[in-house]
Design brief:
Elements: E1 12-14, E2 17-20, E3 23-28, E4 31-36, E5 39-45, E6 48-55, E7 58-65, E8 70-75, E9 80-89, E10 92-99, E11 110-115, E12 120-125, E13 127-133, E14 136-141, E15 144-147, E16 150-153, E17 161-166, E18 170-175, E19 178-183, E20 188-191
Antiparallel strand pairs: 1-2, 2-3, 3-4, 5-6, 6-7, 7-8, 9-10, 10-11, 11-12, 13-14, 14-15, 15-16, 17-18, 18-19, 19-20
């Protein structure tokens, strides 16, 4: 299994939904009602459950908002291969995946930001991990941490991943070689 995958094996319950074994269920009076299979991942933000699912050869991004009891879905433009990670914040969808193999394509993960309001898709190649904190992106790429456009070099060797974010300020970056703490606001490494 890939170290930067966010797939969860245990059932995840959020709002009145359960995500288990790639199936999303809704709880109605304690009874599980199957909504979708082939669900890649879920993410929660306030009273909203976001999900990413595959349908035929397309990916669908959607959300359930409990306060309005509504469901909305969007077909994501483009084609994607292997899925790694998903987060959502304030009606914006973020995911890490491999593009479908083309003639000149390599196995380089792509970080994608999808805004369904204008069906805008923005991508960054070569990202190995990411997190979204308060609507700002933290991206690991080329042995650096990119925090919303500020690039901070890492001294850590090995294959790093974002282990934890503390108080929306300190990024704990870990690899098999050790751990590094990054102060995102001060834009510098504070511990190797």
């Amino acid at each position: 299994t890939d170290s930067f995958s966010e797939r969860r094996e245990a059932p995840v319950c959020a709002l009145n939904y359960i995500f288990s074994e790639n199936i999303l269920y809704r709880l109605n009076s304690g009874v599980k009602v199957k909504l979708y299979d082939r669900v890649l991942a879920i993410s929660c933000d306030k009273d909203t459950l976001y999900y990413l699912r595959s349908h035929e050869d397309r990916w669908i991004a959607g959300f359930f908002r409990s306060s309005l009891n509504t469901r909305t879905e969007f077909e994501i433009p483009g084609r994607f291969g292997k899925f790694y990670k998903f987060e959502a914040y304030n009606n914006i969808f973020y995911f890490l995946s491999l593009p479908l193999k083309g003639v000149n394509s390599e196995d380089i993960p792509v970080f994608t930001r999808f805004n369904p309001d204008d069906m805008n898709l923005q991508s960054i190649d070569g990202v190995i991990d990411f997190r979204i904190i308060d609507g700002r992106s933290i991206i690991l790429k080329n042995n650096t941490v990119d925090y919303n456009g500020s690039v901070i070099p890492l001294t850590l060797s090995g294959k790093p991943g974002i282990h934890e974010i503390i108080d929306s300020r300190i990024a704990v970056i870990s690899s098999s070689e050790g751990t590094e703490l990054i102060d995102l606001i001060a834009e510098k490494s504070i511990y190797q």
